Amino acid sequence: MIQAIRIHRTGGPDVLQWEQVELGEPGPGEARIRHTAIGLNFLDTYYRTGLYPAPNGLPLIPGNEGAGVVLSVGPGISHVAPGDRVAYVGPLGAYAQERLIPADRLVKVPDGIDDKTAAGMMLKGMTARYLLRRTFKVTAETTLLFHAAAGGVGLIAGQWAAHLGATVIGTVGSDDKAELARAHGYAHVINYRSENFVERVKEITDGKGCDVVYDSVGKDTYPGSLDCLKPLGMWVSFGQSSGPITDFNLALLAQKGSLFATRPTLFTYIAARSDLEETAGDLFDVVGSGAVTIEVNQEYRLADAAQAHRDLEGRKTTGTTVLLP
After folding, report:
1. How many helices (H) and strands (E) does the chain have?
2. GO CC annotations (predicted)?
3. Do residues 148 and 125 lie in contact, with contact meaning Cβ atoms separated by under 8 Å?
4. Which residues on neighbouring strands pair with residue 191, listed in sequence order?
5. What is the pLDDT of residues 191-233, one digit of tens each?
């Protein structure tokens, strides 16, 4: 028996229960791993509340990313072996001391990256990578706006985009978070509580607007995000921390300059093993080189996941948070 956090009904943080569960041995294509650290993400709250339905129903063990050690593997596995340090973004089930996981979702962690860093950067870091290198290919000629600049993805994306030479603008909700964003690649930071972010973007860009807006906030930043774009610019909606957009009007894209819009997810971009390896490899490279620093700013015991969720939803966290089994 192992300990895990399970959800038997959707709702607030109190539905996260610390329980004993049985765990079998890996079957074909599977590995059993012991977690050393687990990443906390806003995505986890979507499954907890029922905004995203649990793929296999309830009860549910939440969590999509972690790091640890391979304990055993099933038949047909050759790319990882017992004793390997690994990390992953994979199917739900990370909030547990140990788990079974499809082995093709595991990547080996380089020696220069510790387990807490690996666990906390896989989903956020690979998200930043696909956003900046595939959804819209950022270069030194790019001017971009990134909402929630002091969040986990935002702090990574700011450093990475600055490393690529882009002009990087970010929005935050407090002066403290503005300072944090500036220290992580953002040349211009807008406090949306005291400034109109659309007007400020126009000032910063001399009225030209941005090539791309990365928006994980949703309801509170729509349709303002569209007003920050140049004609033919791209709006990348990859989350909805303030709530879903319920009145999206496709005609607005025409009215505001023949804009492009996309709603990507990391899991599509890393579905193929080759894409996963390339994405993780790029992330490990920029972190290993020092171009991007991953700061684990909060740690909680896995048993205290409910408090971690309260703090995350209360916007009391910055950067990366990990749960420790």
Report:
1. 9, 15
2. cytosol
3. no
4. 172
5. 999 999 999 999 999 999 999 999 999 899 999 999 999 999 9
Cβ pair 204, 186 in contact under 8 A = no
Residue 121 CA to residue 246 CA, distance in Å, equals 30
252 three-state secondary structure:
helix
Q: What residue segments make up the domains of the chain, in order of their start?
A: 2-122+273-324, 140-263
CATH number of 2-122+273-324: 3.90.180.10
Whether the model clears a pTM of 0.85, i.e. scores above it, the answer is yes
CA distance linking residue 165 with residue 159, whole number of Å? 10
What is the Cα–Cα distance from 55 to 32, expressed in whole angstroms? 21
CA atoms of 192 and 200, how far apart (whole Å) = 10
Q: Is 7 left (phi over 0), alpha (psi -120 to 50) or beta?
A: beta
Position 30, amino acid: E
Residue 241 DSSP code: T
Burial of 79 (C-beta count, 10 Å sphere; 0-12/13-18/19+): middle
Question: Cβ–Cβ contacts within 10 Å for residue 5, how many?
Answer: 27
Give the 3-state secondary structure of residue 261: strand
Upper half-sphere CA count for residue 232 (Cβ side, 13 Å): 0
pLDDT in tens, 136-165: 999 999 999 999 999 889 999 999 999 999
Which amino acid, residue 307?
Answer: Q
Task: Name the residue type at position 136.
Answer: F
Among candidates 29, 15, 97, 103, which has minimal Cα distance to 60? 15
As a whole number of angstroms, the distance between CA 174 and CA 171 comes to 9
Distance, CA of 238 to chain centre: 9
Fold of 140-263: Rossmann fold (3.40.50)
Element (H, E) at 143: strand 143-146
Structure confidence at residue 241 as a pLDDT band (50, 70, 90): confident
What sections of 71-165 are H helices per DSSP? Answer: 115-130, 152-163
Q: According to DSSP H, which parts of 100-241 are helical?
A: 115-130, 152-163, 175-182, 197-204
